[in-house]
Every structure is written in structure tokens, then in C-alpha cells.
Amino acid sequence: MVRGSCCKKGWEGKNIMNAEWKWDFALQILPQMLWATLNTIMAAGIGYAIAAVVGLLFLLGQRTPYKIVNAIVREIIEFIRSTPLLIQLFFVYFVGPQFGITLSAWVCAMITIGLHFGTYLSEVYRGALEGVPKTQWEACRALNFTAFYTYRRIVLPQAFPIAIPGMGNYLVGIFKDTPLLSTIGVAELFHAATAVGGYHYRYLEPYTIVGIIFLILSVPAAMGIRKLESSVNKSQGKVKN
Amino acid sequence: MSYFSFLAEHGSTLLLGTVTTLKVLICATILYVIISVIFGLMRISNNSVIQGVATVYIEFFRGTSLLVQLFWFYYVLPFFGVSLEAFTAGVVAIGMNFGAYGAEIVRGGILAVPKGQWEGAHALNFSPFKRMKNIIIPQIFPIILPPAANLTVELLKATALVALVTVVDLTFEAKQINAITWLSAQCFGTALLIYYIISRFFLVPFLRWLEVLAARKVGREKI
Question: Number of folded domains in chain A?
């Protein structure tokens, strides 16, 4: 019965603390935070891998020959995209036990992240496929290539560079959404910060360190993606010439 | 307990939470629009100090997680003598976070206005302020509204996070009801449905209408 309430202890104590930054305390908790960062990176990585596959399934679901199936999949994607990740997490985490299925917080988190960002990635894939000129498809038909061969040798090699920037953006996006996982008790960075803060009754250093770690990891990643994007655009331009 | 009796008992609580969610949505949207215009303009300034400030702001807020910012505003700012109410902290954190994303959209929109427009304004000897106000800004709406609409839907979803800093919104109410009744499927399912309905049948059509309006306005002005 105490599920989900684990990260709330000690929040009331916020007014009795003083404001100055304590270096020794910050250094003392830093190793713990860095260990938790590994968990965060792992959560983002696994979640992303699942989302990449789920995105593919959603994409295929929208491209079946049956219009009704396509419409239903489309609506499911709309539903997942327009509802908050936080409540989806709660839903997956709490509804299972109601029907006798108990999953660990990690499994729930990975399922939810995979589904949520899978819908976004399916849009990225769709955009990339539509970015391949129609004439390429027609040429393949004219040459009597099989559908599999068309995808593997003609379409996908051209679609992939278009999808790279969007896929990269969502990798950073998942990374930045991992703190939400602390709400169902996944022991990632933010969870560690709340736990440390509750234990020592100091929140200034833990939360600031979390912010700094996020900045250190995600700003260079975002910059790298931007660079990749411009180089991809350039290479696409070269292809046109 | 059937779903309808669940609704009869807890529906009003959820609706009250929905009202708070809508309040957060509206306040945060106003704040983020203002911030994105200011920082979007600062970002294209020729003064490198102003541009630098805007860049640091944008990179900072886009680089860290919204939840971290929210907790920072609510739990850490009191250390520095700034005590924000939960609602204010939530609106400010969401507004500033999305303002950073919006600023990039505004910047992109301004830079996407055809060069001839800038040169035309220059040739007619408009001051930079007048050029921006009368020539460039009216033309950016059809460009920035589609991405801004996406961002606003994202903002609606982000409002759920304010529940974690004790704002009594829809998410918070759903959690409370879950803690009392343990009817998780019903309460979280209803909350998901309400978010979906707000977004699909109210927010998105409204934003589409704005897009059509903006496109029509520019089209008319061209004729």
C-alpha cells in the first residue's frame, strides 16, 4: 500500500533549511548521484530501444491495406500522444495489480516509455518515408522490384538520413523525461536526489546537481544532433545535385 | 462497483481538478507566449550580449528536465528567500521551460520571412522597430503557428507535472482517488480520457482555427 509514496518523505522540511551552498555536502553526495546517473542513462537507452521498435509497429499498423485498422491505429496514436506520460505511468503501474498482474517499476516504466515515445518515433519514420520522392517508388515498380527489395535497397537507405535528426531529438527527449520515472519508484537520478535530500534534509545541492548533470549530458547531445542534422541536410543537397 | 457509480461518486472531484488543470494551461500558455516572443527577438539581436543572454537561457531550459526545474522552483528557491506558491511555481516553471522552446520557434519564424521583405522595408527606410512590428511580425504567424500548436499540446501534457509539487489538478485528484479507492483503472483511465478530450476536441481544433485565421489574413494582405 505504500507504493508511489516513497519519494515524498521530508518535503515538509523545506522551510527550516538555510540557503548557503555547502561544497563538502555536495562532494559527499556526488558519487551517489553519479551512480544514479548510470541508471538514468540505462533507462533512457532501453526505453529508446523499445520505442524504436514500437514506433516501427505503429508505422506498419498505419500502412495496412485495411482502412479501418489504419484509422484505429491512428486514433490510438493520437490518444497516447495527447495524454500525459505521468498518468500513463501511473496507469500502467497501478492497473496491473488491480487485475492480479504485478510488474516491477522498471518494467512498467520501460513499457510506458516505449509506448509513449513509440508514437512519436512512428511519426518520424512516417515523415522520413514520405520524404523519399514518389518517383523512386515508381521506378522500383517499373523495374519490377519486390516490395522487400524496394524497401531494403532503395527506400530505406534514402529515408534513414531524413529520420536521423528526429530520432536523435527524441533520444534527448526520453532522457529528459526519465525523472518522471522516479514517481513510480525507479531508482534513477532524480529519485536519488529526492532520497538524499530527504535523508539529509537538504534539497539545494541534490536538485542543483541533478540540473547540472542533465545540462552536461543533454546540451552536448543536442548540439551533436544539430550538427548531424546540418550534415545530413548537406548530404541530401549533394544527392540532389 | 460499476464505472457509472464511480463517476457519480468521484466525477465532481475530477472535474474540479480539471478546472485547475485548465487554469494552469491558460496561465502557462500566456506566460510562454510572452517569453518566447521576448527571447526569440533577443536571439536574433545584433548585440552579442543580448543574444548571449537569450542563448544561455534557451540552452539552460531546454537542456534540463522540466520536472527538475519545477522542483527547483518550488523546493530550492525558498532558500534564496523567494517563496512561490505551488500554483505560481508550476505556472512559472512550465512557462519558462516552454518559453525556451517557443523562442526557437519564433526565431525560426522570423528568419523564415523572405529576404525581400526585409530588403523592401530597408529600402523604404523603416526603422528596425517599425520594420519588425509592421512588416515581419504580421507575416510570421502562419509560419510559427503549426509548431506552436504542437508545443501547446505538449504544454497541456506537461501541466500534469504540477501535481508533483502539490497543485491540486486533475492528476493530483486522480492520485488521491486512487489512494482512497484503489480503483486504478477507473480513476487514471478517466483522467487520461479527460486529457484526451481536452486536447482532441477543444485545444487542437482551436489551434487549427487560429492557423486557418492566420493563413487567411496573410493571404488577404497579399491581394
Answer: 1
